[in-house]
Amino acid sequence: MAPLAALLPVLLALGAAASPTLLITPSAPTPSLAPCLAAAYHGKYGAEHVFLASDACVAESAGLLSAGSLVPTLEDEVVVWVGRAGVEGAAPFSAEGVFAQIQSAGRKFLPALLAAEDGTQKVFSAPASSASLSLLHASDSALFLSVPRAALPVLDTLLPPHYVPVGVAPSPVALGWDVPAHYAEHLANVTRHLRFRPDIATVVNTIDADAIRRDVRWLTGEAPSGIVSRHSFTEGARVAAKWIKEKVEATGADCEYFPYLEGFSPDVLCTYPSDSSERVILSGHYDSRGSFGSTRAPGADDDGSGTSHVLAVAAGIAAHNITFDKKVTLAFFSGEEQGLWGSHYWAKHLASENATVVLQIQADMLAYRVPGEPLQLGLPATIELPEAGWLVANVSALYAPELVVGRTEACCSDHQSFISYGFPATQVFERNGWIADPMYHNSGDLADREGYDFDQIASIAKVTFATVLEVAGFKTK
Ligand SMILES: *[C@@H]1O[C@H](CO)[C@@H](O)[C@H](O)[C@H]1NC(C)=O
Ligand SMILES: *[C@@H]1O[C@H](CO)[C@@H](O)[C@H](O)[C@H]1NC(C)=O
Ligand SMILES: *[C@@H]1O[C@H](CO)[C@@H](O)[C@H](O)[C@H]1NC(C)=O
Ligand SMILES: *[C@@H]1O[C@H](CO)[C@@H](O)[C@H](O)[C@H]1NC(C)=O
Ligand SMILES: [Zn+2]
User: Fold this and answer.
1) Which of 380, 381, 348, 346 is nearest to 361 (CA)?
2) Do 462 and 368 share a structural domain?
3) Span of the secretion signal (predicted)?
């Protein structure tokens, strides 16, 4: 919180601390950065760049950084960025106000949440005393919090509904500066050569809104699945993960669970066999978030819609006996609501394998349409590789002309994890402009309500499916 120059002597006087120092700066890193600092880069969050460096490295680099804040970090705690989700008509940002709300939520709701049993579901198991979050830094529009590991499972339940967390990468982001140019060039070339293909239209036109309806209702518990919540730490999330895995396996994919942090229900990763080393990834997050203080989290729109849209693509792959040239993975993430953790750890794993991901598309909230507005497809206004968004927009015009394509302020979903590790990614969303769903992060996020539109999910599924077919290359048997 203090300016760099003022804090530096204090930190140096404290001597070599075991935990690194958090350096938050609006200045983008440049190639002239000290090597120790370049190796300590943990990515961009909102408008700010984050480093976690030793005090010696910070001292060595001070002259290179004109602006920024230095804050000591705490042992056994993770750093989480908390920012505005992009909700229509949300109150202006006040760091003190938001932090006070978080603290009072901890006092008010946590004891009840920790004790809650919802049917057979033990909802949380973190000790109540762990809910001691501290404020490390406040910027113009976001907070950086220090979160004890044991409090991660309940982080989403402490945040006001219009705020979302993004975990700061626990280890340095090796690829550093940006998505490499060759990825952008490849996608721009695909867009340049794009033309309407009747074979692709035939395949994507069989996307079935009724099948999507059945899947969403199963995930929310509106159909008798027994699921009350898909919060990452619930039994409901595990039931959903098993069901998704079996369903996609039946379409010819090899599916695996990808565990990443203790207690979180695992990601489900399903890959269609291919000899290619290049990957195309289509994803949604199957975990959900309920109202402030409630254990019920049906998540029909967020993100039962994106999850069921990926399931519809899987069904289409099987129905047309499609084999892909490149490796296509359908991914179902968890831990999204606590800070994009499931996607984070898998993107990190892919980066550690030097994987080539030619495109990743995240589908998060596809269903809600303000009554009277047209069918829409919103692409991210900020966090994406622009060439990825342009490709999706151009594909939409060819295969789902009923969608009005634009840009959305909705912030923060799993594609950000892929961007952080230097992979080309974008997101598809239900609306242009702000989030308007009145049941956003609410325990009333059910499918059976005004504005929840299965046809819009199906239209967006045509677009993502056609994009995957174009980029991955395919044959029908
Ligand atoms: C661009 O795309 C076309 C059509 O798919 C392909 O034939 C060509 O090799 C690509 N060019 C580059 C530079 O990738
Ligand atoms: C797909 O393959 C199965 C068996 O291999 C066959 O029965 C079915 O007719 C094929 N479907 C299409 C659309 O070609
Ligand atoms: C990935 O690339 C780096 C740098 O070229 C190399 O050191 C490392 O061994 C590679 N890792 C794998 C799993 O291939
Ligand atoms: C289609 O792609 C081009 C870049 O090739 C881009 O300029 C244009 O905005 C895209 N179309 C839409 C509707 O976004
Ligand atoms: Zn979501």
Assistant:
1) 380
2) yes
3) 1-18
- Output the CA 236–ligand 5 centroid distance in Å: 17
Q: Say whether both 187 and 162 belong to one domain.
A: no
| Ligand nearest, relative to CA of residue 463 | 4
**CA 284, CA 444: separation in Å to the nearest integer?**
20
Q: Which residues surround ligand 5, an ion (CB under 5 A)?
A: 302-303, 364
Q: Using CA atoms, how far apart are residues 384 and 376, in angstroms rounded to an integer?
A: 18
Which residue has a Cα nearest atom 13 of ligand 2?
A: 320
What pLDDT sits at residue 65? Answer: 65
Instruction: Give, for ligand 4, the residue of 377, 390, 470 to mutate: max count of ligand atoms closer than 8 Å to Cβ.
Output: 390
Residue 30: count other Cβ atoms within 10 Å of its Cβ.
9
Q: Minimal CA–CA distance to 155: which of 110, 100, 91? A: 110
Verify that 357 and 214 share a domain, yes or no.
yes
What's the average model confidence in pLDDT over 149-166?
Answer: 86
Domain count, the chain: 2
pLDDT at 293 (0 to 100): 66
Q: Do residues 321 and 344 lie in contact, with contact meaning Cβ atoms separated by under 8 Å?
A: no
**Tokens matching residue 448:** 């059976």
Q: Does one domain contain both 128 and 193?
A: no
Cα Dmax for the chain? 70
Q: Tell me the pLDDT tens digit for each residue of 207-256.
A: 999 999 999 999 999 999 999 999 998 899 999 999 999 999 999 999 99
- Identify which ligand lies nearest to the alpha carbon of 405: 4
Question: Is the domain of 300 the same as that of 402?
Answer: yes
Please tell me the total number of residues recorded for the chain in this structure: 477
What average pLDDT is seen over the chain? 89
Of 68, 138, 47, which Cα lies nearest the Cα of 100?
A: 138
């080393």: which residue's tokens?
A: 277
Show the domain range for 99: 4-175
pLDDT in tens, 384-401: 999 999 999 999 999 999
Kindly give the distance from the C-alpha atom of residue 336 to the centroid of ligand 5, in angstroms, as a whole number: 7
Q: Identify each DSSP E strand in 334-442 by its residue range.
A: 356-363, 376-380, 404-408, 425-428
Instruction: Give me the pLDDT at residue 89, please.
Output: 83
Whether residue 162 sits in one domain with residue 209: no
Taking residues 294-321, report their average pLDDT. Answer: 96
